[in-house]
TrEMBL record:
Keyword Transmembrane applies: no
Listed Gene3D superfamilies: 3.30.450.40, Winged helix-like DNA-binding domain superfamily/Winged helix DNA-binding domain
Protein name in UniProt: IclR family transcriptional regulator
Keyword DNA-binding listed: yes
Sequence ranges assigned to domain IclR-ED in this UniProt record: 74-255
Signal peptide: none
Annotated ranges, domain HTH iclR-type: 12-73
Keywords: DNA-binding, Transcription, Transcription regulation
Amino acid sequence: MSGTPDARPSPVQSVDRAVTVLEVLAELGEAGVTEISQRLDVHKSTAFRLVTALEARGLVEQVGDRGKYRLGLAVVRLAGAVSDQLDVTRRARPACEELAATTGETVNVALPDGDAAINVDQVRGSSTVAARNWVGERTPLHATSSGKVLMAFCPPVRAAGLAGRLRRFTDATTTRRRDLEEALDKIAVDGFAATREELEVGLNAVAAPVRGADGEVVAALSVSGPSHRLTAERLREITPAVVAAADRASAALGRRV
């Protein structure tokens, strides 16, 4: 172990060390600064600074006056957020599978992620043998059906989506803030959002909101596919099925109509 304090670690190195502190405490249950410094192979003063920073954010806490630290309650909050996301994926899966079988197209579930929507689950239909895997991808709120649904029904998401520049992805992308706001107001009334080649040329989609037990929108469920199959007419045809699937997913999350 180094006998002197580390010289100005890079921000990335500091983040890596902070994560390692959390991993050490998760493994050991509790540990003192000396033990943490040994596990990280850093000077005690460096370990103390890391622990102090994590303590200030509630990620670690002291165990009485014994000089020991353990994971803090903020870790529980973060883990709970991930658990909620996984719960949405698990409970919505049957509705997604049924919808994919009915439409033959790709079905995705997306959650809000700051100024974007992140796809957390995907079911491929019979027509989508070579479909793109969207899971884990962050997509722009203003240029996707899922993003527009989340903006229309979740005020914080709407504010995040309207805060920055509305990037143009294709000629069909809505880039005027007033036009987007009018579209979102209509989506809130209609209960669904459809996009035609707004994110990618040749890609169309329609999405509906998924609500939690408290009635708040927690996700968007969408069907997407190539424009030669999901024509404007076909989008209108499958929209009731998409809304019904989203309602079934909401019921699985405890939503009562």
